[in-house]
Predict the structure of Beta-glucosidase.
Amino acid sequence: MTNQDLKFPEGFLWGGAVAANQCEGAYLEDGKGLSLVDLLPSVEHGRFEALMNPKKALETNYNFYPSHDSIDFYHRYKEDIKLFAEMGFKCFRLSISWPRIFPNGDETNPNEKGLEFYDQVFAECKKYGIEPVVTINHFDTPVGLMRDYNGWASRKTIDFYLNFCETIFKRYKDQVKYWMTFNEINMILHVPMFGGGMDISDAENPEQLKYQAIHHQLVASARATKLAHDINPENQVGCMLAAGATYPNTPNPDDVFAAMEADREGYFFVDVQARGYYPSYSKRLFKEKNIQLEIADGDLETLRDYTVDYVAFSYYSSKLTSADPEVNQKTDGNVFATLKNPYLKASEWGWQIDPVGLRITMNAIYDRYQKPLFIVENGLGAVDKVEADGSINDDYRIDYLREHVRAMHQGIEDGVELIGYTPWGCIDLISAGTGEMKKRYGFIYVDRDNEGNGTLERKKKKSFDWYKKVIESNGADLN
């Protein structure tokens, strides 16, 4: 295959991705309210326990909160966006902090200072010809909504969310074209605090509560899609899934069916958002989990009439499962439990590295929905070492990304319509799961450690120049 053969479609959106709650810092500055992650300590101080017990997070004063200062993108965005522009970014995926605009979440009027901040960020992007790709709700439902309404468990949250959406759709009408309604919407099943801003610990039937909250999010997503198109017909609205093909552990048909069910757990959300209706298999799912959704008049018509324009997803690894409970010894390192695949290597955090799995995932999603795809997260979390001369030789990250870009190209050759690629954590930031800084993804190193020490100086890694070449050549030069 020649280099010319490896080129991506004209206008392909190369870029990088971050989230407000993992990079901005300034956690109470200029009128911002508390985000969910602002309650969470670092992993050394009990982050996992707090994630699974929101009441504890609300009531405990921890020693160190990584998100409070993070990497201070709030004050350093000009420097960071300039570095993104130097790499040649065509787009930049970021999120708008909901509590920065509506501090408690249920206010009628927005916080002007918060809106002004994103005015400035988008203006800086425009200065360099970078297209913003904005996630509306990226694990930062305001703490006030969790405390006062139990987050997305309450139908009232739909209206609070739509007020937020209308505010930003109108304010940034001429600055933002690409939107995503929720980040990794299926994460609500695994970490309800992140995904739903809610506490399920006292629920008589936790599955009932989770799927009712999911219904509220799906209705909110559809209504937001309509709103975005009404305000600006040029808007493109996507849904976003934490994806990764699930393989059966053996050819045993029971294992094959278990793998299919595992994939359906995530596809459930996109089936509704992209097709416009609850899938046929949901009837059995709801029956077996004793779930009876409260569906308001007009909800099903809303889901039917306002489907998304594209399907975005994150991909870090594939998964492996068995129908035999005794075989299913889980690995550490990810919220998605999986068997260890003997054919794959794993990262330092136990995430199994599978570029072919990305091609499989692309084909599976595109075959299912026939809508444009956008890979908005992909990358390798690793410990990076600054050498004596100041260099950071992250060849392992280059190797990981190179093979995934090749897999993307194979997917495109297979007939998949792929519009863009934004590797995760294009600048080092706080890990969502662990709250660590040492788990780094970026092309740009940030001088900060797990305890919040460091100068916050930005340094280019070896991967910075590599990715710059990839973008310059539109994917042809991967050396």
Summary: The longest helix spans residues 206-231.
